[in-house]
């Protein structure tokens, strides 16, 4: 009896988590794959018999959808500009904070981390106000410096950059903490040895710190890239994809087709394309990382 | 004699140089810090301005006439009290999820059982699935279970998470087996061992996860937006999004709503920040 109980105990402990994860993470993958081959819409949910199997029709249609193509290009824009900016800025701030010896430098961690924990809607509301062409603080400051107004959210290219600025502001904190943790893991003796050899700060940074941070940089670049590929909340709340779909991301495209137009099959096909793209890009990054480790 | 004087001199110039560098770095960080906090300061101060002042073409930092009318408006004319209640319910449920994560982490850390490695791998695999892929099927599944537009539908999908289970497992493997065995020999039930021995020993990670869970629950936006059609189920962030749509021109009111969402989190964060920031080091995120 006792051994029977002992055998059951672990299953009792994991059961709730496993059931919930299966139901809301694993099963949905298969459901999404299945419905991406059907024409499921709002009518289909109420009456299953009206759903028909359409094969690859959704996939063919979505890759020729001009808005989908545009959303892919926008997402690439976010990734190409956003990922390097997040890495450079969060690393630079982590290095500066790590360099400081006074107590005040600990307070800077809190200040720079703060935007990461705030609510995306609240932040988007505040930034919409800051970006407002007539009332906004940003244009007012520019005018004070005798600079012309910037059409923050009105111009197709500028709107993308404005969203990146906002997302950057939110992303620095967490990545800075990851870099700080990695910096504190570097043994002090390396620097002492380098100083005896007369290496200056810049030499120490490029020859010791950056190479030893390679794993942290890799981790941050992978997670940041995946994050930017799924970029959603900022364009959704701030611009709703406008002007002229210039800020629509792939994730926003999927959301809109799924929940605003109720074309579930079509949106599922789009989501699978995104999923496959994320897997491929992540694998490529792992490949590059492995090659770099060889030397 | 002479050489020691020279080295002394160079040492003092080194110290001086070091001091200047510290000051320069401090000033750069201070300027960056001011820029980063500017949106918060602007938001909070604007929330206390009357609407006319927020719409003034020459903005001023401090309100000329302080008012709490905007907050009053949120609760009296808008349903922010109801949204607050819903948000608190979501947060409380997310703590139940935290407990379930801890239970699963404990079993994966401290028991040998058939299928353990496969199941743990499955848990980790769920971390790689993007939310955009699962959101439509999860909606359909919940709809099929008659849970769309219910509180259960809002909280169930996010209740457990692979990352939490993983962190608990990592931490709990360090608890000595002898301790658990001793408690079992004394006749403690498995649940009691978990509740009275394992959980108290897991405090540091429980603190970090607890705060992060609170923040995530408080900020939850996309899922409640999808699954709740009925305004009576809206959370604060969904309500704020609604407010932005309806009162797009009234920035003072929007700033008050945003302040109401952000300030509690900032206060909790400042109180517990040491745990969170150190927690990343504990969690082995490096």
Class derived from helix and strand content of chain A: mainly alpha
* Oligomerization category of the chains in this entry: heterodimer
Number of strands of chain A: 0
The best one-word shape of chain B is flat
Q: Please outline the major beta sheet of chain B.
A: none
Radius of gyration of chain A: 24 Å
Distance between the termini of chain A: 58 Å
- Biggest β-sheet strands, sense, barrel of chain A: none
- Residues in helix, % of chain A: over 70%
Mean pLDDT of chain B: 86
Indicate the structural class of chain B.
mainly alpha
Radius of gyration of chain B: 26 Å
- DSSP strand count of chain B: 0
Topology as H/E string of chain B? HHHHHHHHHHHHHH
What's the tally of helices of chain B?
A: 14
Mean pLDDT of chain A: 88
Q: Summed up, what is this model?
A:
The complex is a heterodimer of chains A (295) and B (286). Chain A is mainly alpha-helical.
Give the helices and strands, then pairings.
The complex is a heterodimer of chains A (295) and B (286).
Chain A: H1 2-35, H2 42-46, H3 57-63, H4 66-99, H5 104-117, H6 120-131, H7 137-144, H8 156-184, H9 188-196, H10 201-212, H11 214-229, H12 233-239, H13 250-260, H14 264-294
Helix pairs in contact in A: 3-14, 4-8, 4-11, 4-13, 5-8, 6-12, 8-11, 8-12, 11-14, 13-14
Chain B: H1 2-47, H2 51-54, H3 69-76, H4 80-110, H5 116-125, H6 131-144, H7 151-155, H8 162-172, H9 177-185, H10 190-201, H11 203-219, H12 222-227, H13 236-246, H14 251-282
Structure report:
- The complex is a heterodimer of chains A (295) and B (286).
- Chain A is mainly α and 295 residues long.
- Chain A contains 14 helices and no strands.
- Chain B is mainly α.
- Chain B has helices at 2-47, 51-54, 69-76, 80-110, 116-125, 131-144, 151-155, 162-172, 177-185, 190-201, 203-219, 222-227, 236-246, 251-282.
- The mean pLDDT of chain B is 86.
- The interface between A and B is large, with 93 and 90 residues.
């Amino acid at each position: 009896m006792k051994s029977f109980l002992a055998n059951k105990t672990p299953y009792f402990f994991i059961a709730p988590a496993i059931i919930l994860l299966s139901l809301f993470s694993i099963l949905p993958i298969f459901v999404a794959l299945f419905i991406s081959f059907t024409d499921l819409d709002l009518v289909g949910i109420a009456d299953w018999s009206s759903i028909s199997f359409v094969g690859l029709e959704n996939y063919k249609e979505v890759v020729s959808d001009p808005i989908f193509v545009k959303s892919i290009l926008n997402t690439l824009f976010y990734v190409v500009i956003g990922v390097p900016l997040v890495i450079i800025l969060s690393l630079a701030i982590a290095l500066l904070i790590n360099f400081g010896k006074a107590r005040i430098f600990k307070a800077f961690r809190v200040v720079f981390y703060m935007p990461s924990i705030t609510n995306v809607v609240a932040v988007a509301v505040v930034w919409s106000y800051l970006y407002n062409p007539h009332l906004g603080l940003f244009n007012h400051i520019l005018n004070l410096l005798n600079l012309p107004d910037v059409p923050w959210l009105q111009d197709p290219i500028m709107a993308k950059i404005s969203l990146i600025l906002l997302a950057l502001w939110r992303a620095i904190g967490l990545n800075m903490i990851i870099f700080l943790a990695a910096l504190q893991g570097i043994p002090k003796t390396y620097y002492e040895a380098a100083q005896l050899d007369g290496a200056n700060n810049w030499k120490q940074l490029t020859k010791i710190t950056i190479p030893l941070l390679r794993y942290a940089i890799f981790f941050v670049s992978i997670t940041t890239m995946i994050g930017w590929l799924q970029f959603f909340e900022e364009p959704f709340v701030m611009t709703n994809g406008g002007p002229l779909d210039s800020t629509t991301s792939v994730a926003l495209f999927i959301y809109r087709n799924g929940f605003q137009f109720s074309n579930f099959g079509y949106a599922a096909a789009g989501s699978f394309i995104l999923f496959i793209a994320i897997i491929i890009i992540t694998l490529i990054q792992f490949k590059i990382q492995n090659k770099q480790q060889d030397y | 004699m002479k050489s020691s004087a020279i080295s002394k001199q160079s040492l003092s110039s080194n110290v001086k140089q070091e001091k200047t560098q510290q000051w320069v770095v401090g000033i750069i960080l201070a300027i960056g810090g001011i820029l980063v906090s500017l949106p918060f300061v602007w938001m909070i101060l604007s929330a206390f301005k009357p609407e006319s002042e927020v719409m003034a073409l020459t903005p001023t930092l401090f309100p000329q006439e302080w008012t709490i009318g905007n907050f009053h408006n949120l609760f009296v004319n808008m349903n922010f009290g109801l949204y607050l209640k819903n948000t608190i319910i979501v947060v409380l449920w997310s703590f139940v999820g935290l407990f379930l994560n801890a239970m699963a982490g404990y079993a994966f850390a401290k028991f040998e059982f058939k299928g353990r490695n496969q199941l743990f791998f499955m848990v980790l695999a769920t971390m790689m699935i993007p939310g955009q892929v699962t959101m439509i099927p999860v909606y359909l599944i919940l709809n099929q279970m008659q849970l769309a537009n219910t509180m259960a539908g809002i909280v169930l999908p996010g209740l457990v998470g692979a990352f939490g289970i993983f962190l608990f497992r990592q931490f709990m493997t360090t608890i000595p087996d002898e301790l658990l065995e001793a408690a079992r020999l004394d006749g403690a039930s498995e649940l009691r061992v978990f509740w009275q021995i394992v959980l108290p020993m897991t405090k540091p990670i429980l603190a970090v996860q607890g705060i992060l869970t609170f923040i995530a629950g408080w900020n939850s936006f996309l899922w409640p937006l999808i699954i709740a059609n009925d305004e009576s189920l809206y959370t604060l962030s969904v309500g704020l999004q609604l407010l932005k749509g309806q009162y797009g021109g009234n920035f003072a009111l929007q700033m008050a709503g945003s302040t109401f969402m952000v300030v509690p989190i900032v206060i909790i964060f400042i109180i517990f920040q040491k745990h969170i920031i150190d927690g990343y080091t504990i969690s082995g995120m490096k």
